[in-house]
Write a structure and sequence with these properties.
With about 325 residues, the chain is an alpha+beta fold. The protein has six helices and 14 strands. The protein has two domains: about 140 residues, no CATH class; about 130 residues, Immunoglobulin-like (Sandwich), CATH 2.60.40.3880. α3 packs antiparallel against α5. The chain is extended and about 95 Å long.
Length: about 325
C-alpha cells in the first residue's frame, strides 16, 4: 500500500481522468430548478404534474434500451456471418493435422479415400472465395443497419396507427370483415343509397382553388341509421379502407374525414341515433384544376351494430362540382 503523502504521475493522470468524467456527467444533467424555470418561461409550468419527469425518464430509458437491443442484434448477425467460414476453415485444418498426426486411426476412420480430400479442398476454396464476399458485406453493414432502422421506424409507425384505429368487433352470428366481402352500393347516379342499416345521401362536392394549377374538393354526405345502437366509422387513408375519387382514370385518396364533430386524417367515428342524419365530410387536396366533374366517389366506412358488423362502401357516380 502506498502511504506517500503525494501522488506519482500515473496516479495524478488517473485522478484527472476520473474527475473529468465526473465533470462531463454533471454538465450533461439539467437540474430540476432549471427545468422548472425553463417551463415557466415557456408558460408550461402549470401543466406539469409530479409524475411527468418520471414518465419522461422511463420513455427515454425504454428508447435507449430498444436502440441498444437493436445494435446488439445487428452486431450478432454480423459476427455470425464473419465467424462461420473461419470456423469451417479451422475445422478443416484441425482435421488435416489430426490425420497427419495419427495416420493409423483417424486417416482410416475419417478419410476413406482421396476423393473425399479433393471434395474438402474444393469446399475450402469455395469458403475462401466467400470470405471476400463476406468482407464486402461487412463494409456494407452500415448501410444495412440504416435500412433496418428505417424498417423498424416504419413498423413502429404502422403499429401506432393500428393502436389508434378503431377495434374490430366480430359477433358470432355475423361475418367478419376479413372473411367476407364488404357490401357495396350498386353503381348509380342518384344522390342517395342504402346499405345494410345506413342511408348515405350525397349533398354536394365543392371545389376551392388553392394555387394556379390545383384545387381542393370537399364532399359532404348525410348518413342516417335505420336502427338503434349503431357506431359508424369513416376512413380517409387507413389500412382498413380508403375513400377516393376517380376522374379520367386517375385516383385521388382522401386526406381527411369528418363525422359530426369528430375528424381525423386517417379514420373517425361517431354514434348514430335512429332516423337522425349526421353529416360526414370527405376532403381531397391538390386535385388538378381541370377536374370539373367526378366520375366515381367511393366512401369507405365500417358499421358496428347488433345487426351488422363489417365494412361498407357507398358509391356515387357522375358528380358535378360546385364552387
Amino acid at each position: 500500500m502506498n502511504n506517500k503523502p503525494g501522488l506519482n504521475e500515473d496516479e495524478f493522470k488517473k485522478l484527472v481522468k476520473i474527475l473529468s468524467q465526473r465533470k462531463e456527467e454533471r454538465e450533461g444533467i439539467i437540474t430540476i430548478d432549471t427545468v422548472r424555470d425553463s417551463l415557466r418561461e415557456l408558460e408550461l409550468s402549470e401543466l406539469m404534474v409530479e409524475t411527468d419527469i418520471e414518465e419522461v425518464r422511463k420513455q427515454v430509458n425504454r428508447e435507449f434500451k430498444r436502440r441498444q437491443r437493436k445494435n446488439y442484434l445487428i452486431f450478432g448477425l454480423i459476427l455470425i456471418i464473419l465467424t462461420n467460414p473461419f470456423a469451417a476453415y479451422g475445422g478443416y485444418k484441425l482435421k488435416k493435422f489430426l490425420v497427419a498426426r495419427f495416420p493409423g486411426n483417424l486417416a482410416t476412420a475419417q478419410v476413406d479415400n482421396s476423393a473425399e480430400l479433393v471434395n474438402l479442398e474444393k469446399q475450402v476454396k469455395e469458403l475462401e472465395t466467400d470470405k471476400a464476399d463476406l468482407e464486402e458485406q461487412l463494409k456494407n453493414s452500415e448501410v444495412t443497419k440504416e435500412q433496418l432502422e428505417k424498417q423498424l421506424e416504419k413498423l413502429e409507425d404502422e403499429n401506432k396507427a393500428a393502436n389508434t384505429s378503431p377495434p374490430t368487433t366480430i359477433s358470432p352470428t355475423s361475418p367478419s370483415p376479413e372473411s367476407s366481402p364488404s357490401p357495396e352500393s350498386s353503381p348509380n347516379t342518384t344522390n342517395s343509397v342504402e346499405i345494410q342499416e345506413l342511408v348515405f345521401e350525397l349533398q354536394e362536392c365543392k371545389k376551392s382553388l388553392t394555387s394556379a394549377t390545383n384545387q381542393n374538393i370537399t364532399c359532404s354526405v348525410l348518413i342516417t341509421s335505420t336502427n338503434e345502437n349503431t357506431r359508424t366509422y369513416l376512413y380517409s387513408d387507413n389500412y382498413r379502407g380508403k375513400s377516393r375519387i376517380i376522374e379520367a382514370g386517375k385516383e385521388s385518396i382522401a386526406t381527411r374525414v369528418k363525422l359530426g364533430s369528430n375528424s381525423s386524417t386517417s379514420s373517425t367515428n361517431n354514434n348514430l341515433i335512429k332516423d337522425i342524419p349526421m353529416e360526414g365530410v370527405i376532403y381531397f387536396e391538390n386535385i388538378p384544376q381541370e377536374v370539373e366533374k367526378i366520375e366515381i366517389l367511393e366512401i369507405s366506412s365500417y358499421l358496428d351494430s347488433s345487426y351488422y358488423d363489417g365494412a361498407i362502401k357507398a358509391e356515387f357516380r357522375d358528380i358535378n362540382l360546385v364552387e
